[in-house]
Amino acid sequence: MSRKIKSIKIIDPGTNPDVDSDFHTVGRGKTIEHVMDLYGADNVAGIITPGPFKAKNAFKSMATIYGLNFAQAQAISNTLPDAIEKKMTIKSMLDPNSEYYEAGADLRIQLNTPQLEEIAHSAAVLDGRMRETGVHPCGMLISSKPIKEVVPVQIRQSDGLSVTQWNYYNCEALGLIKMDFLGLVTVDLIDEAI
Fold first, then answer.
1. Element (H, E) at 43
2. What is the sign, positive or negative, of the torsion defined by CA atoms of 169, 182, 131, 61?
3. Where on the phi/psi map is residue 160: left (φ > 0), alpha (ψ -120 to 50), or beta?
4. Strand partners, 164
């Protein structure tokens, strides 16, 4: 029985291509070195991945600062939205004029002391702010000129890699090309089998 795929969307019209290449896990590092030699180390950079506070970890962080016991902090954080519900924030759950106020009923019931209310309002300030940053595990940007002339970069101390301070979507809007150099264990297994 054969099936036809009705439509395959490779790239969105008007956007740059996103090229994925699969390598042996050992060969991935050599590939990145080759790309840096070919295009110039200044023209190649890793991509920052932002890690903002989400509602649950914002509340738990403030609970730790205020010395709230773990069980109570956990019980309250369980009333908060998961990270995938981006528009629902602690602030929107506490604001009577918000469309998410009703969804915050369980949270507000738990906030039965002035200290708990203060913790929640402090956590609302953190919710959505930058907590940490990382580096995209396989994405690399390649530019026709030094990347630091196009976007701000920082140098990763562990290996000296240039890393953009803007996320991929902002870099893509400037015309930078993203390559995904994936080190796959599946390729390792094929190599071993051969």
1. none
2. positive
3. left
4. 153
Q: Among residues 123, 99, 100, which one has the least CA distance to residue 111?
A: 123
Beta pairing class for 162-164 and 177-183:
unpaired
CB 58 within 8 A of CB 126: yes
Sheet with 44-52, strands from edge to edge, namely 18-23, 177-183, 130-142, 44-52, 162-164, 153-155
pTM of the shown model: 0.69
Question: Tens digits of per-residue pLDDT, 55-82?
Answer: 999 999 999 999 999 999 999 999 988 7
Of 57, 56, 16, residue with least CA distance to 139: 16
Radius of gyration of the chain from Cα atoms? 23
The Cα 70–Cα 83 span in angstroms is 20
**Quick count: other Cβ atoms within 10 Å of Cβ 184?**
14
